[in-house]
Design brief:
Elements: H1 3-15, E1 25-31, H2 32-42, E2 46-52, H3 65-72, E3 76-79, H4 88-95, E4 100-103, E5 112-115, E6 118-121, H5 129-146, H6 151-176, E7 185-187, H7 194-200, E8 203-205, H8 218-231, E9 237-239, H9 245-254, E10 260-262, H10 276-291
Parallel strand pairs: 1-2, 1-3, 3-4, 7-8, 9-10
Antiparallel strand pairs: 5-6
């Protein structure tokens, strides 16, 4: 783990009360990455339930009666919004959720992208740590409203988390600095890394669109293969939430090797990316190593 992540963990440990509250604020989060950010801000004052867990795909998730039951016992339900949780309207209707729905991307400007010939909103803001800073502030504000006695506690933890994200951005830029802009090109499964690419000057190519539910056309796949052959792209990745077969097929036909996986819409069950900070460090290291081999 990078030094700044260790420092952040120590800061949060000292910022936490000596023992957890007898009664924590029960909250829920739609998917694992967001759940981790809520835990980072909420600390010992919250009990977080996660609907879509590590290595699971939020795009294709289908709520179950058990999920409705878990959700009903929470005071706040944190979601990404921007269409990321396509199942959210159905869940809200079926659960009659009595708590407050908190959209953590509120107030942030979303990027748009072309998906299947249409201009759509890219919901994957959490791939940009600069935007995650605002998401953390939105989480702290919602927790403070629900638990006024903990307002200073939440504000302190959000401020510490913002500092860790600032360190993360500085570190990432240093990792990527040796790589010329022309070599910053990557192929991955679905179009989940647009915000990361925008922040750090990386061009991501993907056969699938903004959602893993979309299917790549034969024409799109053929075009990607031609681009790889023409440009000499070597940085080719699968994702932890996606079926690897399509990327493996493209890599085979383009005569390149798959470098491994990136963590896109979910944390990992293994130790590589169990927090958002770890996920981002892992991805940047993997990308920097692979892009150095691009022609």
């Amino acid at each position: 783990m990078a030094v700044f992540a260790v420092i952040f963990a120590l800061v949060l440990a000292f910022a936490s009360p000596a023992h957890a509250q007898d009664t924590r604020l029960p909250v829920s989060a739609s998917f694992s990455i967001l759940s981790d950010i809520v835990k980072a801000v909420g600390g010992d004052r919250v009990d977080v339930i996660t609907l879509v867990g590590p290595d699971q795909d939020t795009h294709t998730y289908e709520p179950t009666p058990a999920d409705v039951a878990k959700l009903s016992g929470t005071k706040l339900f944190f979601v990404n919004g921007l269409g990321f949780e396509g199942w959210l309207p159905r869940l809200m209707k079926s659960s009659h959720y009595p708590g407050e729905l908190v959209t953590v991307t509120k107030g942030l400007k979303a990027r748009t992208m072309v998906d299947d010939g249409k201009t759509v909103t890219d919901p994957h803001m959490f791939q940009d740590p600069e935007r995650v800073k605002t998401m953390a502030d939105n989480i702290a504000a919602a927790l403070s409203k629900a638990d006024p006695a903990g307002a200073n506690y939440y504000a302190d933890r959000a401020r510490n988390y913002r500092g860790a994200l600032d360190d993360l951005i500085v570190w990432a830029n240093k990792q990527l600095a040796p790589i010329a802009p022309a070599r910053r090109v990557v192929l991955t499964s679905h179009d989940a890394f647009g915000y990361l690419g925008q922040r750090f000057g990386i061009k991501f190519l993907a056969p699938e669109g903004v959602s893993t539910e979309s299917e790549a056309s034969a024409k799109d796949v053929a075009n990607l293969i031609r681009v790889i052959r023409r440009t000499g792209i070597k940085a080719v990745f699968m994702e932890n939430i996606s079926n690897p077969r399509l990327v493996q097929r493209i890599a085979h036909d383009a005569k390149v090797t798959v470098d491994g996986k990136l963590y896109s819409d979910a944390l990992s069950k293994n130790p590589e990316a169990t927090t958002y900070l770890q996920l981002f460090q892992y991805n940047i290291r993997a990308l920097a190593a692979a892009m150095k081999d691009n022609r």
